Amino acid sequence: MMDKRVLRRTFLKAAAFGTGTLAMSQPQQQVPRRPMGRTGLEVSKLGLGGYHLGTIQDQQLIDRIVGEAIDAGVNFFDNAWEYHDGRSEEVAGQALRGKRDQVIVMTKVCTHGRDQNVAMRQLEDSLRRLQTDHLDVWQIHEVVYWNDPDLIFAPNGAIEALAKAKQQGKVRFVGFTGHKDPRIHLKMLSHNFPFDTVQMPLNCFDATFRSFEQNVLPELNRRGIAPLGMKSFGGSGEMLRHGDVSPSEALGYAMSLPVAVTISGVDTLEVLHQNLEIARGFQPLSAASMESLRQRCRPPAADGHNELFKMSVKYDGKIGREQHHFPNEEELPL
Length: 334
Description:
- There is one protein chain.
- The protein has 334 residues and is an alpha/beta fold.
- It has one domain: TIM Barrel (Alpha-Beta Barrel).
- Helix content is 41%, strand content 13%.
- It has 16 helices and ten strands.
- Helix 4 runs parallel beside helix 5.
């Protein structure tokens, strides 16, 4: 099987930019910014994912990717306590030394149903690895199982850790993430906790199948909660594999939605440069272009095979599987 990173690079190298659907500008332009919900922060429309940074073995390359992204105007950096057993946070912390005040640092707590004491210990781990005394955003990671909201909001649950950390000044803003089913997101929101951010998959296939765009995004914007988009290429590029869309169309669609930031993983300078070419001076697609792309993607999107993160446990983390008593990835690849 082809390595996911190689496959991702192949998609991007093969894609043609300048299709006429995106308004691009000269490389010296900065990635535009927009308000991050009601937080008062301004966030770049393109964010840098933390998972892929942890796959890079050369710290100098990581430093260069982070530095070039910041120079281009990217100021949102995603991460999670469990990514590569903490390595993603460690390498990001190293790369952000001397640049911390230029960026919005977000990481995720990975209790997966365990109590607030576990969450607070993970917070201290994340602060140490990221070499900072506070997080700008701290989110509950991977709310993807139907009983997750019940566990999170149970007495002494992880939600109490979010409130405590914010009160202590160790985190500025809080939220949650998930990729499975918009109804789970709505169940989290039904508790009316004052979340500042919510992260979810948003792409041109999502509009057709178990749609976060249709069911969750309007509610977030109604409440002033900052929507953070992810999986614009389908997780591992599933939606690009058969040429249904190009990377420029996929990322352009995701960034045209009413979101604060679209988070994209980067594991090479080549991927970074091509993403930046789309994002610099970005102008949203027209409503007609968005609808045309949705309709074109409707047939291959209809059964969910291009969004396996909704259909299976393929993208669920190891610890989450363990806490919910699912077989590991070797025993149950999907």
